[in-house]
Amino acid sequence: MAKDMTLLWGTGSPPCWRVMIALEEKSLQGYNQKLLSFEKMEHKSQEVLDINPRGQLPTFKHGDNVLNESYAACFYLESQFKSQGTKLIPDGPAEQALMYQRMFEGLTFYEKLNVVIYYTFNWFVPEGERHESALKRNKEALVTELKLWESYLQKLGSGSYLAGPSFTLADVVVFPTVGTLFRFGLSPERYPKLGEYYNLLKERPSVKASWPPHWLENPKRLDTLKDI
């Protein structure tokens, strides 16, 4: 089955990482994959555009079925391979409701992180639109968001996943954001529950198997978010 799958991806991209974790959790190792370089603009190559006209990564294909949105690909993999690997959507209505809620809140979480990173490194922000006041506002919004996720994990208690005692799709799609936060220097002392969650999941086989290769090559954390 995995041999009918192709993933074009970029290292350090949370959307790509989501799909890779899902593939690992569903025991779909051995899929065709190609690592592309964002720096070399390979995500805008004809190879990608032929499958994904937006020129974005991930670009995922299973047979003739194309799913280029990471959430869609993760839902698809769980739906098509329900009885294989980890069950990622719980049966209980309370846990399932919380899973869906946290999944889609995860999009806001990722966006709040992105705008800070983009402004800090001047990625995709035209020179005339770079303002210190905007960076300050974006950092404040990220702090508010981080405190919200701290409170969610606090309510669930130590050793919990995002939707309760079981690892679910919520963890598949949100952990890459958390992993990126700590890669860029977020303080686990300031955000202990997120730090605990990060330490719990970073040892999970699916996460270790899909860990961004350039992070492995250079494991030193950045200090971009050390004061957040």
From TrEMBL:
Q: Which residues form the GST C-terminal domain?
A: 92-222
Give the superkingdom in one word. Answer: Eukaryota
Query: Which organism encodes this protein?
Result: Haplochromis burtoni (Burton's mouthbrooder)
Query: What lineage is this protein's organism placed in?
Result: Eukaryota, Metazoa, Chordata, Craniata, Vertebrata
Q: Which InterPro entries match?
A: Glutathione-S-Trfase_C-like (IPR010987), Glutathione-S-Trfase_C_sf (IPR036282), Glutathione_S-Trfase (IPR040079), Glutathione_S-Trfase_N (IPR004045), GST_C (IPR004046), Thioredoxin-like_sf (IPR036249)
Classification via SUPFAM superfamilies: GST C-terminal domain-like, Thioredoxin-like
PROSITE patterns given in the database record = GST_CTER, GST_NTER
Gene Ontology molecular function:
glutathione transferase activity; maleylacetoacetate isomerase activity
Q: Among the record's GO biological process terms, what is one? A: L-phenylalanine catabolic process
Q: Could you tell me what this protein is called?
A: Glutathione S-transferase rho
> What are the GO cellular component annotations?
mitochondrion
